């Protein structure tokens, strides 16, 4: 059910305190009523002494609405999570940790960074459907941010080189619908096939620039267009535009992306693009995913992400 604030004043009015946030989260997490994560029992009491916590009538297990979710164990007030999620989900470009720290008056850069890193984990819906119908697939190289560049950005641009990104755009006559992006090792058949297998539905009609690696990918119909004198932006207009927007966004908001967390930043870009027509509903999807997502620790978040 659609249930989300349509503006910043509405967010502030509807979620003035932790109790209001918790009531809303309870409805998102258990739309058909509380279910005990330990025994599956549906009968429970809400505890008066512990904030937004249920005690199961069957097994006695106490479960708070944030337990076992991305917000698990967070010391930040729920109101702050809501404000951060609202700004992050609804702003057309999102924002860096430095910007979020300033906007919400957070105590440290690390707090802001961690909050955004966790929210990014809620930007891939579990069980999302692969792209189907007509799908453009292409790859590009994006410049990486230097390791020693400060989080707020600097003047130099990557001397660390570039990384290959694969992109797929599901499209209809009227334009693009959904996208997928992932870092890949190189533009070989193996790397591209791995990406296509995860992003594109079997039987989809794939349109590419005719690069021979695509022809060898099984399970998709392939419509190669050999570029020749025709420019890529005419042949594959949507991937070309997405890649250009991605590069502009990465530089504008983050002063370039680092290899270490690349996939989650691509997920962020993808989440916002795929929900571009209803940004305020994105606030609700973010929490629906966050409520279903397993808790992550700081150490898990700072580990480098796999590229493949
Ligand atoms: Zn139980």
What report would you give on this structure?
The chain has 308 residues and is an alpha/beta fold. The chain has a domain at 134-274: Ribonuclease H-like superfamily/Ribonuclease H (Nucleotidyltransferase, domain 5). The protein is 40% helix and 16% strand. It is built from twelve helices and eight strands. It has helices spanning 8-14, 18-29, 78-90, 97-104, 109-121, 189-199, 212-215, 232-235, 237-254, 262-274, 279-292, 298-302; strands at residues 44-46, 53-56, 62-64, 134-143, 162-172, 175-184, 205-208, 221-224. The strands form two sheets. The protein has a five-stranded mixed β-sheet, sandwiched between helices. A hairpin with a 2-residue loop joins strand 5 (162-172) and strand 6 (175-184). Helix 3 packs across helix 11 (279-292) and helix 4 packs across helix 5. The longest helix has 18 residues, at 237-254. The two termini are 36 Å apart. The model is unreliable at 152-159 (pLDDT under 50). The protein binds zinc ion.
Percent helix, as a range, is 25-40%
What is the terminal-to-terminal distance?
36 Å
Which cofactors or ions or other ligands sit in this model? zinc ion
The structural class is alpha/beta
Q: What's the number of helices?
A: 12
Describe the oligomeric state of these chains in a short phrase: single chain
Total strands: the figure is: 8
- Calculate Rg over CA atoms: 21 Å
Q: Looking across the biggest beta sheet, what order are the strands in?
A: 6-5-4-7-8
In the CATH scheme, the class of the domain at 134-274 would be: Alpha Beta
CATH fold name of the domain at 134-274, please? Nucleotidyltransferase, domain 5
What is the average of the pLDDT values?
Answer: 86
Q: What is the 3D shape?
A: globular
Question: Quick one: biggest sheet?
Answer: 5 strands, mixed
CATH architecture of the domain at 134-274: 2-Layer Sandwich
């Amino acid at each position: 059910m659609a249930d989300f604030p349509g503006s910043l004043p509405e967010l502030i009015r509807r979620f003035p305190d932790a109790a209001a946030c918790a009531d809303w989260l309870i409805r998102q997490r258990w739309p058909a009523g509380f279910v005990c994560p330990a025994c599956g029992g549906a009968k429970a009491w809400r505890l008066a002494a512990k904030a937004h916590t249920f005690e199961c009538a069957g097994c006695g297990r106490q479960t708070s609405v944030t337990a076992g979710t991305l917000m698990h164990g967070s010391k930040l007030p729920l109101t702050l999570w809501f404000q951060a999620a609202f700004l992050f989900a609804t702003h057309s470009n999102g924002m860096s940790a430095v910007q979020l720290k300033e906007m919400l008056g957070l105590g440290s850069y690390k707090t802001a960074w961690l909050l955004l890193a966790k929210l990014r984990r809620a930007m891939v819906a579990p069980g999302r459907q692969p792209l189907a119908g007509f799908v453009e697939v292409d790859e590009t190289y994006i410049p990486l941010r230097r390791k020693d560049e400060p989080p707020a950005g600097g003047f130099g641009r990557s001397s660390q080189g570039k990384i290959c990104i694969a992109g797929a755009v599901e499209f209809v006559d009227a334009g693009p619908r959904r996208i997928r992006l992932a870092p890949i090792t190189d533009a070989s058949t193996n790397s591209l096939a791995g990406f296509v297998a995860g992003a594109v539905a079997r039987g989809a009609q794939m349109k590419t620039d005719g690069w021979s690696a695509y022809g060898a990918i099984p399970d998709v119909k392939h419509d190669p267009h050999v570029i020749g004198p025709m420019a890529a932006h005419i042949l594959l207009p949507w991937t070309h535009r997405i890649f250009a927007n991605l590069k502009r966004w990465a530089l504008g908001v983050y002063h370039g992306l680092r290899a270490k967390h690349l996939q989650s930043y691509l997920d962020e870009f993808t989440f916002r693009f795929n929900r571009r027509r209803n940004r305020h509903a994105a606030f609700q999807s973010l929490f629906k995913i966050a409520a279903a997502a397993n808790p992550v620790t700081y150490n898990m978040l700072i580990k480098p992400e796999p590229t493949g």
